[in-house]
Amino acid sequence: MSEWTFLTHHAHVLLEVAKNQDATVQQIAEGVGISTRSAVSILNDLETAGYLERERRGRRNHYVLHPEQPMRHPSNATHAVDELIQALADLR
Length: 92
Fold this sequence. Notes:
Elements: H1 9-19, H2 25-32, H3 36-48, E1 52-57, E2 60-65, H4 81-88
Antiparallel strand pairs: 1-2
């Protein structure tokens, strides 16, 4: 049986950031189960697309989400990213 998931790594990185906007890249990568290099690449993609911003706070990054952004796939574009976050993020 092949291993696959319903969500992409991009979605998982977004959910990790939603859980902890002060997480390090290493923490995000570990939470998703990807390399730090992949996490950096995905964070760059999300920032370029306007889903988050990075703010420098001392020696660390703080991430500001833009949950009002629409989902990227045309069939989901009427939904905001916040709907995904609210449905799937464990924000405890």
